[in-house]
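Ops channel
N.P.: pipeline sanity check, posting one input/output pair.
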């Protein structure tokens, strides 16, 4: 199968979509799929992502003129992109409306969550679709470690009930919707605490200073995974996320989640953590009570690229065969 994808990989720690599409492309190639980002190249089916690399209705129409099926992976723009893409008219986010306009040219649509599906249905989308949650490369984001980077593989260490609980936020973006208002409040309320260690890996708004959070610079995926495996809990308070890669990366590294019930966070993490309701201490108390049970559940979580790639390939194959 030859697949066109409007995706040019950005090396380094740059965004959930970039991380996911890189892992998906690698999984496709390992299964014998030929990937091209050249719209003039021959392909059997196109897997289009959101509005990536300037994708618009005219481009989609030209691709459809090739006579090949188009599958579109939609991303909600309420918390992504430029102010223009986020602007709302008639209750519909502009970036979402642009994607809805692709519908006449599509064979199939993939939503990353039922939350995203519902947003787009309310925005006027009407067409065949499948919901496929994101996945991460489980060869990188997993619960296995090697001592000093070599030697036999063993399972990572977990919170032992006595040591300080290490809580991590992971975000490449400095956007306020990533939860910074709540992180500021938490930073103040946890000043001087020794029973909880807070860290944030990624980026913070320019000029921002945190005292309780230890700020760590962005990391490439293997270094990020290594850091996550030394933590005990992932804290994800982002709003309107279509399907948070940061949350899934943490879960796959064995971290119970404290999450804000916004966007798809509850849908993704309900079995693997507890909601944040304005009091991190209360949420962490619930995590402590069920820590071992949550860790056991995490072992069977479905957010792995090997499983997710198979679902995408099934959709692409059905599109090639003329099925909607």
């Amino acid at each position: 199968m030859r697949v066109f994808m409007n995706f040019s990989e950005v090396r380094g720690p740059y965004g959930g979509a970039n991380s996911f599409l890189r892992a998906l492309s690698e999984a496709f190639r390992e299964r014998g799929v030929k990937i091209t980002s050249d719209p003039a190249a021959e392909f059997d089916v196109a897997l289009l992502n959101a509005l990536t690399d300037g994708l618009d209705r005219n481009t989609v129409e030209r691709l459809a003129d090739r006579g090949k099926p188009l599958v579109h992976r939609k991303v909600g723009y309420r918390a992504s992109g430029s102010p223009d893409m986020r602007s709302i008219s008639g209750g519909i986010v502009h970036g979402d409306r642009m994607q809805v306009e692709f519908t006449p040219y599509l064979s199939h649509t993939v939503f990353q969550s039922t939350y995203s599906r519902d947003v787009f249905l309310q925005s006027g989308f009407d067409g065949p679709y499948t919901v496929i949650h994101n996945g991460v490369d489980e060869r990188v984001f997993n619960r296995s470690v090697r001592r000093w980077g070599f030697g036999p593989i063993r399972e990572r260490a977990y919170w032992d009930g006595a040591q300080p609980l290490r809580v991590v936020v992971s975000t490449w973006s400095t956007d306020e919707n990533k939860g910074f208002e709540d992180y500021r409040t938490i930073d103040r309320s946890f000043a001087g605490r020794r029973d909880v260690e807070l860290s944030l890996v990624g980026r913070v708004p320019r000029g921002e200073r945190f005292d309780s959070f230890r700020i760590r610079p962005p990391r490439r995926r293997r270094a990020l995974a290594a850091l996550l495996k030394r933590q005990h809990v992932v804290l994800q308070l982002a709003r309107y996320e279509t399907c948070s890669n940061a949350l899934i990366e943490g879960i796959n590294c064995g971290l119970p989640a404290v999450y804000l019930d916004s966007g798809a966070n509850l849908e993704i993490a309900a079995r693997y953590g507890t909601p944040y309701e304005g009091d991190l201490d209360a949420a962490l108390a619930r995590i402590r009570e069920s820590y071992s049970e949550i860790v056991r559940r995490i072992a069977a979580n479905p957010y792995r690229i090997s499983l997710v790639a198979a679902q995408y390939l099934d959709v692409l194959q059905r599109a090639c065969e003329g099925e909607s």
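N.P.: looks fine end to end. The first strand starts at residue 2 and ends at 5.
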